[in-house]
UniProtKB/TrEMBL annotation:
<feature type="domain" description="Tryptophan synthase beta chain-like PALP">
    <location>
        <begin position="39"/>
        <end position="354"/>
    </location>
</feature>
<dbReference type="Pfam" id="PF00291">
    <property type="entry name" value="PALP"/>
</dbReference>
<dbReference type="InterPro" id="IPR036052">
    <property type="entry name" value="TrpB-like_PALP_sf"/>
</dbReference>
<dbReference type="GO" id="GO:0030170">
    <property type="term" value="F:pyridoxal phosphate binding"/>
</dbReference>
<keyword id="KW-0456">Lyase</keyword>
<keyword id="KW-0663">Pyridoxal phosphate</keyword>
<dbReference type="InterPro" id="IPR001926">
    <property type="entry name" value="TrpB-like_PALP"/>
</dbReference>
<protein>
    <submittedName>
        <fullName>Diaminopropionate ammonia-lyase</fullName>
    </submittedName>
</protein>
<dbReference type="InterPro" id="IPR010081">
    <property type="entry name" value="DiNH2opropionate_NH3_lyase"/>
</dbReference>
<dbReference type="GO" id="GO:0008838">
    <property type="term" value="F:diaminopropionate ammonia-lyase activity"/>
</dbReference>
């Protein structure tokens, strides 16, 4: 499915609150917070000139979030950042003064953090970030996972000391159960999706993702003309598109949201013209994107600044994993998990279709920005789909670089 944005909100300005959440001042603050993380380093912006020539565009740049903060996905920026902000705010209320991030490890702040429990639902990556953030500040974490989350991903979260709670059903079922239990027990819900009456904390999670685009823009000689970003509930796509809209205004790039065909809640909402929940169907291999109801805050942004919405199929996602692991010519190899290369899958699909290309103005001069949103967060699944271990792909990258 491919459709241009025809919603009634298209090209309207972001509402003031969303513009502030995703604006320059907030993004600068995110990057300041990152300087206090022991394992912080900007992730690579990788150029793929051979692939760009192959599909007929001028340039392809991919931000490789598989290397972010030791967690293997872009989610490392959102959940942990929100947890830190919330702990500092609670400390400020308790101590009766402003508490800054440089005080995070002080005895006073850690004593307050120990009284807090943060909770969320996850497909894997967001929960890992929330759990890591809780461990960092000395708070407790309760992470709710649905039946489709692999044991490997559960173990990766549990190693941060989180209590793991299994929930029957889908991601959306786990979101509801997390909210119910957390509310009853006085825990703080740190969700990456939002609903009426619960918007600020998911906004903080999205705010954390603005670091991705700020880092990328600093490295590019020219800003992108096109951006393709995959979407689950919409948070990462809204953060990137919203920040670009604030920073670049009328000169912002053409923005395309890419959904799995089996979990296309953003695309179906665009088709309907308003936020809708879709029915649960057959599971998708793109596990981190298997969501059936958009985030309210994310949809509010995407309906205004997204230019087109599209879906990709299961085979498209797996083919891109393999293409990135086994690149043409001198392009560097990249480890992309099942959901990591979905934006690239969307670009390849558009580039092969004259109608879609024309609708987006995609041509040989186009400069495309993409995000590898995750590395091999389930290494066994990665090897099963790609036919190689993540380690062998990384080793081959080094060998190609030396050649």
């Amino acid at each position: 499915m491919f459709l241009v944005n025809s919603t009634s909100d298209y090209k309207k300005p972001l509402i003031a609150g969303d513009a502030d959440t995703l604006g320059v001042d907030a993004a600068v603050e995110v990057e300041r917070y990152l300087t206090f993380r022991d394992n912080h380093a900007e992730t690579p912006l990788v150029s793929l000139p051979a692939l760009a020539t192959e599909i007929g565009v001028g340039a392809i740049h991919i931000k490789d979030e598989g290397q972010r903060l030791g967690l293997g996905s872009f989610k490392a920026l959102g959940g942990s950042y929100a947890v830190i902000r919330l702990v500092l705010e609670e400390a400020g209320r308790s101590l009766g003064r402003n508490v800054d991030v440089f005080e995070l490890q002080s005895p006073e702040v850690r004593a307050i953090a120990k009284t807090m429990t943060v909770a969320c639902a996850t497909d894997g990556n967001h929960g890992r970030s929330v759990a890591q953030g809780a461990q960092l500040v000395g708070a407790k974490a309760a992470i709710f996972v649905h039946s489709g989350v692999s044991d490997e991903r559960v173990a990766a979260i549990a190693r941060f000391g989180a209590d793991m709670i299994r929930v029957d059903g889908t991601y959306d079922d786990s979101v509801r159960e997390a909210a119910r239990v957390a509310t009853g027990r006085g825990w703080t819900i740190v969700s990456d999706t939002s609903w009426p009456g619960y918007e600020r904390i998911p906004g903080l999670v999205m705010q954390g993702y603005t670091a991705i685009v700020r880092e990328a823009l600093r490295e590019m000689q020219e800003p992108p003309s096109h951006v393709f970003v995959q979407s689950g509930v919409g948070g990462i796509a809204a953060a990137i598109s919203g920040h670009l809209a604030v920073v670049m205004g009328e000169d912002r790039p053409t923005f395309v949201v890419v959904d799995p065909a089996r979990a296309a809640c953003i695309v179906e909402s665009a088709k309907a013209g308003y936020l809708i929940k879709i029915d649960h169907g057959e599971p998708t291999v793109m596990a981190m994107l298997e969501c059936y109801e958009p985030s309210l805050v994310a949809w509010r942004v995407l309906s205004r600044v997204t230019d087109a919405f599209m879906t990709v199929d299961e085979d498209d996602a797996v083919a891109v994993m393999r293409k990135l692991a086994n690149p043409a010519d001198n392009d560097p190899a990249m480890v992309a998990g099942e959901s990591g290369g979905v934006g690239l899958a969307g670009l390849i699909k558009v580039a092969s279709d004259p109608g879609m290309k024309a609708a987006l103005g995609l041509d040989q001069a186009s400069r495309v920005f993409l995000i590898n949103t995750e590395g091999a967060t389930d290494p066994k699944k990665y090897e099963e789909l790609v036919g190689r271990t993540p380690e062998s792909v990384v080793a081959n990258t080094f060998e190609r670089a030396k050649a």
